[in-house]
Amino acid sequence: MSKKVRVRVVADGAKGFFTRAREHARKLDKGEELAPAITISFENASDMVRVLSEQRIRLLKVARERPTAVSDLAIGLKRDTRAVSRDVDLLETFGLLQSHYENNPGHGKRRIVQSCAANYQLVANI
């Protein structure tokens, strides 16, 4: 995934989803191109905050800088490696991060985490 892709996380539920879908359809009907973007929609702001906790947002910020090993992320964030790994798993399921394994000579393999976008836009209406 290219870092030029815009990632937008919204808490606008089904209504927002269908509004975006209609707008995209209108643009496509007119022959306009859609900018590459990923929109992750939550039903409400409470669900969004539950997934995007303060610690996970910090993780996104650090991972955005450069591909980094989970163990190095944990050290930099002053958190337990297993907790960071669980957070990476969760954020990866939402398409906010991606990871792969690479050889770590003399130590097996290590998991490298990288951001899916240069910027994340979080939008919640209450």
Write a concise synopsis of the structure shown.
The protein has 126 residues and is an alpha/beta fold. Helix content is 45%, strand content 25%. The mean pLDDT is 86.
Give a description of the structure.
The chain has a single domain (6-124), classed as Arc Repressor Mutant, subunit A. The protein is built from five helices and six strands, in the order βαβααβααβββ. Helix 4 packs across helix 5 (81-93). The chain has 126 residues and is α/β, with parallel strands linked by helices. A three-stranded parallel beta sheet has the order 2-1-6, with helices on both faces. It has helices at residues 13-29, 45-51, 54-65, 70-77, 81-93; strands spanning 6-11, 37-41, 68-69, 97-103, 109-115, 120-124. 45% of the residues lie in helices and 25% in strands. The radius of gyration is 17 Å and the shape is elongated.
Keywords:
126 residues, alpha/beta, Arc Repressor Mutant, subunit A, 3-stranded parallel beta sheet, 3-stranded antiparallel beta sheet
